[in-house]
């Protein structure tokens, strides 16, 4: 890798391929400095590609899924860019506590280039639960490699630290996906009920309307609790 800061799509793609196929060599040869422009561009391109993949899949879902997919073209790159800086700040502290002597820019570069896996994980998100597990484990694996190859930290120590973080991340993601799926099911039922209720709105008493709303709220509460 060199220190050029211009946009070079072929280089971005080559870096992404290297992160996916040979992360050890990539991080071993990664420049620790050179500015933020190059890694920021890398994050934006990878996030945009992932958003395109998500949009293409979502178009087959129609309705809310299609709308969400189109908005992802704008939202995903922005969120990933912000997330890259926040994640780098957290990992910078962790690496410092582990004994790293590198600065924040190096930490950011480690995080930014790990997003080379985004196009692949975007496809995996279409697979229930697998899409919540693989990105976390893969990301933790890349940060373990970065810990040893870039920061020169002990392999076993890094494995323990990022193994724990990966375990926590998987549990949180699986819980979140389960809650989201439960809520989606309850929303579908609610829409059906509302459709029927609107047809009979004139014949429904205030007590019946209140009861229907109460049943919906209980269903939403159960969904958020994972029941």
What does this protein look like?
The chain is globular, with a radius of gyration of 22 Å. The protein is mainly alpha-helical and 227 residues long. The chain contains nine helices and no strands. It has two domains: 119 residues, no CATH class; 74 residues, no CATH class.
What summary fits the major beta sheet? none
Compute the CA-based radius of gyration.
22 Å
Cα separation of the termini: 50 Å
- Average pLDDT figure: 82
Q: What proportion of the residues is helical, as a percent range?
A: over 70%
Poorly predicted tracts of residues: none
Spatial shape: globular
Structural class: mainly alpha
Order of helices and strands: HHHHHHHHH
What is the domain tally? 2
**Beta-strand content bin:** under 5%
Helical stretch count?
A: 9
Structure summary, number of beta strands: 0
Summarize this structure as a short list of keywords or feature phrases.
globular, 2 domains, 0% strand, 79% helix, single chain, 227 residues, 9 helices, mainly alpha
List the helices and strands and how they pair.
Blueprint: H1 9-21, H2 23-29, H3 37-58, H4 63-98, H5 104-114, H6 118-124, H7 130-149, H8 155-199, H9 206-224
């Amino acid at each position: 890798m060199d220190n050029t800061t211009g946009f070079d799509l072929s280089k971005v793609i080559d870096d992404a391929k290297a992160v996916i196929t040979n992360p050890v060599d990539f991080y071993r040869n990664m420049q620790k400095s050179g500015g933020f422009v190059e890694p920021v561009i890398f994050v934006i391109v990878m996030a945009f590609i992932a958003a395109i993949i998500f949009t293409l899949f979502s178009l087959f879902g129609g309705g809310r899924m299609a709308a969400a997919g189109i908005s992802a073209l704008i939202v995903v790159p922005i969120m990933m860019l912000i997330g890259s800086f926040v994640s780098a700040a957290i990992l910078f502290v962790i690496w410092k506590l582990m004994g790293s002597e590198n600065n924040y820019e190096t930490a950011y570069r480690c995080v930014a280039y790990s997003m080379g896996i985004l196009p692949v994980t975007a496809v995996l998100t279409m697979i229930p639960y697998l899409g919540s597990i693989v990105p976390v484990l893969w990301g933790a694996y890349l940060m373990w490699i970065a810990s040893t190859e870039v920061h020169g930290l002990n392999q076993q120590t890094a494995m323990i630290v990022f193994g724990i973080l990966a375990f926590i991340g998987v549990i949180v993601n699986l819980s979140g996906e389960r809650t989201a799926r439960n809520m989606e099911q309850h929303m579908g039922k609610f829409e059906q009920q509302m459709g029927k209720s609107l047809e009979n709105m004139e014949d429904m008493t205030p007590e019946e309307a209140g009861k229907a709303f109460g049943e919906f709220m209980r269903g939403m509460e159960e969904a958020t609790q994972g029941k």
